[in-house]
């Protein structure tokens, strides 16, 4: 999941949606009784660890522990306390003006811990590291595998984009709309992504949803949509500069392929935001899409599109079942 | 900098290249006497903080302090000690099966600290956060701004790729070569990137350098280079599968634009590696480049290429000087 707005499509346990409840369970003061079963994932760059565990008093039930180091507190006093004689240093290396140490500060040592208990198999699956694979989707693969797969998911109501139609029809989230162009052919709705708090302009993140229905992804785009795409680009940039003071040279505008929901949408976010869905194997810049369509009207019907799919992704299973994705180079 | 191999081009203070020296200075046991001057950068996702500081005993000199939280130690005993009654929890939120805490562990609290002292203005500049800007380089911009800029840098010997020719001519790094195809038109040298320890296949990172000279970047590629690119792709994939057991569906192959040195080169790395240079605004997939050239022979001479440039980048200054990069949308 890259976008909160898109979460609507993803199953969440009902319980998460409940209001804060008074639990019978006493609030834990320590991890007493916790036992590590296995490491689900270890994101070393982010310093975040996902553990499968149990509690001694009920070994039938599972728990998920998420431990994450906190960013440094940069308040002046906190910083100066960190950089003081209270921080013990053990030298690792000294080379001229460069020295490295293992440092043990007396402050700023707390981490963020999340416990999910009791956790279902679904939770364990959600947090367990998934291998990812690069898949090259040729035009034939799209027509033979991806398109039928997506359509079947709609038939089976596994993909449901009613929430998008609710936004377009003003049945939901109307108060969140940043800007709207009501033209049925070229119009769109611009609204904040769920991940954005709508306060801090430096973490600006919005989604532009075309009013036009039936466009599932960039695979459906041809030269007839250039006017719509240009309209979405220019009006979004103008309103974002006007309302939030962010110029176009500080914004990224792109499609995901595969998208996480199949109503075409443009991600617009601040260039300084460090987001996982902005890699070359997932993000297709709006500017490039427009220019490719102008160069070659059926570019996205002809193009082999490379993408990554997770091990557990049913689309990957569909590719593997056809066994035609092992295209020779 | 994304690639160690590319470091050859970047100026490093001579001192860094010296062997480990015995310093007169006593090894520090704490940060005693350190004073925070300012925050140079705060990478919250990576939990890494860059500070400009001074030491009380010599306020004329500057210091750079780099503080980084360590990844969790996942050895079984270390994990179990973390998940024990020795870790104090303060409840932040409780909602049904979900609880979040601020946790203070008694172990695994050390961080990695680097001190550069005395630090030059160059060091401060290196670590100070740079704003980045999205620049759309049209074909005219390339011909009028980028190409003359790059050529002038070669004339002024600011860009120097002698080290690449030393590799191609077997005058340097010969023992590091993974594979070589000596054809002068389609051949190339494959060698590990400096960042790769050449041991752990999961962090595989290599660079493929064509033998053909004069290709500065993907802007110079046309249909006449497709054979070379396909050759680099197929032979690299074959040798990587053979020597390192990594299949093509676990690899990313791409060019950077702008590159950090101007002899064409392909980055090849393991898909699980979390690398900054793989974003859609920098990385151009080799497969896409080949296909675009097959669709349209002069694709990369015609294409507007979006890229990010840092505030301090002289190329950005060149774009701004021409004032023609504020292209209307």
The parts of chain A where pLDDT drops under 50 for at least 5 residues are 1-24, 325-329
How are the strands of the largest sheet of chain A arranged? 8-9-10-12-11-13
Would you identify the CATH architecture of the domain at 132-322 in chain A? 2-Layer Sandwich
Shape of chain A: globular
Please work out how many helical segments of chain A DSSP would assign: 9
Distance between the termini of chain A: 31 Å
Task: Work out the strand percent of chain A.
Answer: 25-35%
- At the fold tier of CATH, the topology name of the domain at 132-322 in chain A is HIT family, subunit A
Question: What is the H-and-E element order of chain A?
Answer: HEEEHEEEHEHHEEEHEEEHHEH
> What is the fourth-level CATH superfamily of the domain at 132-322 in chain A?
HIT-like
What integer is the average pLDDT of chain A? Answer: 90
General description of the model:
The structure is a homodimer of 329-residue chains. Chain A has 329 residues and is an alpha+beta fold. Chain A has a domain at 132-322: HIT-like (HIT family, subunit A). Helices cover 26% and strands 29% of the residues of chain A. Chain A has a six-stranded antiparallel sheet. In chain A, strands 1-2-3-6 form a four-stranded antiparallel sheet, covered by helices on one side. A two-stranded antiparallel sheet of chain A has the order 4-5. In chain A, a hairpin with a 6-residue loop joins strand 8 and strand 9 (188-192). In chain A, helix 4 packs across helix 9 (314-322). The longest helix of chain A is centred in the last third of the chain and has 19 residues, at 226-244. Chains A and B meet through strand 1, strand 2, strand 3, helix 2 and strand 4 of A and strand 1, strand 2, strand 3, helix 2 and strand 4 of B. Strand 6 of chain A pairs antiparallel with strand 5 of chain B, so a sheet runs across the interface. Chains A, B: Its EC number is 3.6.1.59. Chains A, B: Keywords: Acetylation, Cytoplasm, Hydrolase, mRNA processing, mRNA splicing, Nucleus, Phosphoprotein.
